[in-house]
């Protein structure tokens, strides 16, 4: 035996020196009041409890002979090991020994454990040698995670160091084989306990975004796979992960104090008392604080797990694999190792629009943004000038039109301070809890949920861009004094101007926010058969049918995003009936019409031949391509196909004719790099029109490369095709609302050429990921319902469609 502890016996039994003084001291700390014994704040209380338990254990250990040369050591794990002792936390202790006589070890253990049990202190205990403890850590993942937090209390410190060093060494070397189990265990815990940020009564310890997740990050840091505080830049709201950790501990400390026992779940009836004790405010203020902290922890955990997975050591043949290829996604943006990162030549300091290009690329591909990229953007990217460049607004619309993937992207931007830089008004609604039971989400999350539902309704409106922006901002006035619709409408004016919208669009956006509750409130509270009800709505909207259409779609998206059961057949039918009645009152919408052709272009058209020019557009990343060529079937398809083949995304197009020549003007943006030379575009166009260039095959290959690892070409919204009578005989106007894809304009024009329909003029507009294209088709004497049906069917074959519904009875939950 390397020394021995002294034990005493009385009347044939073990004499237990009690822990009543320990319990009494703990009670005094918890009940502190008055000048001599003031009430401690949560952090002070935890520190005092750590000192108290360490003092008792150290004194008791010395009394029992657990000394530096005894071959015995008391090691703390759990809360005491982390120095996070809560009022009623379990005491987790390990009695280590170096092959000491079992009888002596047993007596020492009894002398140590029984006083704690007698005092009704919850105790998790074990007695091990170092090899035994290491075997337990290797065989039991939970025990291994606990021993990573081991800390020496009293006795042979060399023995403790052997344990701590051995556990950490084996954790680092064995992490590859244990990582999948660690992830599975973590996800199972999240599934059981839910998300702290979105639970009325959250589990502060085990819930997603809770204290267990912070311990997980520490374990990954011990394995040298990630930073213990990953993914947060200098402008992060709420003070970052360290502050989030402290707040969660403070709330859990007060929860113990209020409940008078160990508890992890925050009950609604205790929230006001805990909020007041922490000087946070009422239960709503406490909920907002917890949501902010939990979302910060959740984001950091996602980053930490992703970083750790990429950093896992390679073994065997995996070590010989080539490094992942960097795939271009946009100007200055590439994919690398399954993440969206900055290109090597990107210059964030000189490129304020880079933030939104990174975000749009992430939303489109479904790939997460690398934490290092977001940190670099936080530190280096300058503010966007006002008004925003058109390409920045377009990237925002791409982000908002990406469906559910946009939620995670905006969350990552917000947790790193970048979203608040783009929208300073967001601070008032960030983590703001709902004030009524119908709402499932915090206000900021509700706004993003509405955006995702609005993306699925984008083809029901002529202005999907304004629908997306209206969904994003409709509740932006909450969290401030006054009617949130009126306050929000004023904020929307400022935001719309900042985004660079046309003045008329700024007014429409403000009206969307101002009247976003008009249709549901009127439909559910007033008599729709009363003409005054319909006239009231029509007057409130100034007779604007487009605004009515936008509010109709927003009412559905807003209701769906509120919570289960808020949108149903009854509400849908009432609002639909109101909208139909209002449209009758507002009848008289003007027909689409072509834009006049520039006289300079008319002169070039009169000269004949094929001309292609490329000039700078209104912003840094846009260009104007003008194609003048003999007006032959298939020209529009070939022109748009050549542009798509050279990674030029068509933002808008005006197609017209002058005599025997077609005059087609395209506003384009390069997907990455500089645009090709106009001469090259002309040569490619000549090859395409002659049949020497297989555009359909090349475009299919280009689309496959563009989709990459992303979600594919499934659409969120069902495409919508509208036939509108034209004034000239034999002509008809076709309006298409759909989601974009590579070479879509080329494919559509090919459909018309195959059907023998001559495109007299066209106006194509891309708004983020949505398109609203209007074509005036000359069908001549062969116009018939059957021909239009064939054209419509062919159009639907080339536009992105929503995924097919799952078979009946199949689980659709993710």
UniProtKB/TrEMBL annotation:
Keywords: Hydrolase, Magnesium, Multifunctional enzyme, Nucleotidyltransferase, Repeat, Transferase. Residues 624-700, 733-805 form the ACT domain. Residues 1-328 are annotated as: Uridylyltransferase. One of its GO terms (molecular function) is [protein-PII] uridylyltransferase activity. Its EC number is 2.7.7.59, 3.1.4.-. NCBIfam families: PRK03381.1 (NF002895), UTase_glnD (TIGR01693). Belongs to the GlnD family. This is Bifunctional uridylyltransferase/uridylyl-removing enzyme. It comes from Nocardia rhizosphaerae. The gene is glnD.
């Amino acid at each position: 035996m390397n020394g021995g502890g002294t034990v005493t016996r009385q009347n044939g039994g073990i004499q237990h020196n009690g822990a009543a003084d320990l319990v009494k001291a703990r009670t005094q700390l918890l009940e502190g009041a008055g000048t001599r014994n003031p009430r401690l704040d949560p952090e002070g209380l935890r520190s005092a409890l750590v000192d108290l338990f360490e003092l008792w254990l150290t004194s008791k250990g010395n009394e029992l002979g657990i000394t530096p040369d005894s071959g015995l050591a008391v090691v703390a794990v759990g809360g005491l090991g982390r120095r996070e002792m809560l009022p009623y936390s379990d005491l987790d202790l390990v009695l280590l020994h170096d092959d000491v006589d079992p009888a002596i070890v047993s007596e020492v253990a009894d002398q140590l454990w029984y006083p704690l049990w007698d005092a009704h202190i919850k105790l998790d205990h074990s007695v091990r040698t170092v090899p035994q403890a290491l075997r337990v850590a290797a065989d039991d993942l939970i025990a291994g995670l606990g021993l990573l937090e081991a800390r020496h209390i009293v006795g042979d410190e060399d023995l403790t160091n052997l344990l701590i060093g051995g556990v950490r060494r084996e954790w680092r070397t064995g992490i590859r084989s244990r990582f999948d189990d660690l992830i599975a265990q973590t996800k199972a815990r999240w599934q059981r306990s839910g998300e702290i940020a979105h639970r009325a009564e959250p589990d502060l310890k085990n819930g997603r975004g809770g204290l267990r997740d912070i311990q997980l990050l520490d374990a990954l840091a011990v394995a040298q796979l990630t930073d213990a505080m990953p993914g947060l830049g200098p402008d992060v709201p709420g003070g970052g992960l360290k502050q989030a950790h402290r707040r969660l501990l403070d709330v859990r400390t007060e929860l113990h104090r209020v409940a008078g026992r160990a508890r992890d779940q925050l009950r609604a009836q205790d929230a006001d008392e805990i909020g007041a004790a922490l000087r946070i405010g009422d239960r709503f203020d406490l909920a907002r604080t917890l949501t902010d902290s939990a979302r910060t922890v959740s984001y950091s955990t996602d980053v930490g797990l992703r970083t750790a997975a990429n950093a896992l050591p390679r073994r065997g043949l995996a070590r010989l694999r080539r490094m992942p290829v960097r795939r271009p996604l946009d100007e200055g943006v590439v994919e690398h190792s399954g993440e969206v990162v900055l290109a090597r030549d990107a210059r964030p300091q000189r490129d304020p629009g880079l933030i939104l290009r990174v975000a749009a690329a992430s939303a489109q591909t479904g790939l997460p943004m690398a934490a290092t990229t977001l940190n670099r953007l936080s530190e280096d990217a300058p503010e966007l000038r006002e008004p925003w460049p058109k390409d920045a607004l377009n990237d925002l619309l791409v982000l908002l039109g990406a469906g559910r993937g946009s939620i995670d992207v905006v969350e990552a931007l917000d947790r790193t301070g970048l979203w608040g830089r783009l929208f300073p008004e967001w601070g008032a609604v960030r983590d703001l809890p709902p004030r009524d039971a119908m709402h499932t989400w915090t206000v900021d999350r509700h706004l993003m949920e509405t955006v995702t539902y609005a993306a699925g309704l984008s083809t029901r409106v002529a202005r999907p861009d304004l629908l997306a922006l209206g969904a994003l901002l409709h509740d932006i006035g909450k969290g401030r004094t006054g009617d949130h619709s009126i306050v929000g409408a004023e904020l929307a004016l400022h935001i719309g101007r900042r985004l660079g919208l046309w003045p008329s669009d700024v007014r429409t956006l403000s009206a969307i926010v101002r009247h976003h509750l008009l249709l549901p409130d009127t439909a559910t509270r007033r008599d729709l058969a009363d003409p005054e009800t319909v006239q009231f709505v029509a007057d409130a909207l100034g007779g604007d049918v487009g605004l009515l259409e936008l509010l109709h779609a927003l009412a559905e998206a807003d209701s769906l995003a509120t919570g289960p059961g808020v949108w149903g057949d009854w509400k849908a039918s009432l609002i639909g009936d109101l909208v139909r009645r209002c449209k009758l009152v507002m009848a008289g919408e003007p027909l689409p019409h072509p834009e006049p052709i520039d006289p300079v272009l008319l002169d070039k058209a009169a000269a004949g031949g094929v001309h292609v020019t490329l000039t700078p557009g209104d912003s840094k990343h846009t260009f104007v391509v003008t194609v003048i060529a003999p007006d032959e079937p298939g020209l529009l398809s070939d022109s748009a196909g050549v542009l798509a083949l050279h990674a030029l995304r068509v933002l808008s197009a005006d197609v017209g004719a002058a005599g025997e020549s077609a005059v087609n003007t395209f506003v384009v943006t390069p997907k990455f790099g500089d645009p090709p030379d106009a001469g090259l575009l002309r040569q490619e166009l000549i090859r395409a029109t002659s049949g020497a260039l297989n555009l359909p095959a090349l475009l299919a290959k280009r689309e496959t490369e563009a989709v990459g690892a992303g979600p594919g070409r499934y659409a969120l919204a069902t495409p919508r095709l509208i036939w509108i009578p034209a004034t000239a005989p034999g002509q008809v106007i076709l309006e298409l609302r759909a989601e974009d894809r590579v070479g879509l304009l080329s494919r559509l024009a090919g459909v018309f050429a195959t059907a023998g329909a001559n495109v007299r003029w066209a106006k194509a507009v891309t708004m983020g990921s949505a398109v609203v294209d209007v074509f005036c088709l000359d069908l001549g004497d062969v116009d018939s319902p059957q021909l239009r049906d064939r054209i419509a069917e062919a159009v639907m074959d080339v536009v992105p469609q929503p995924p097919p519904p799952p078979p009946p009875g199949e689980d659709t939950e993710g």
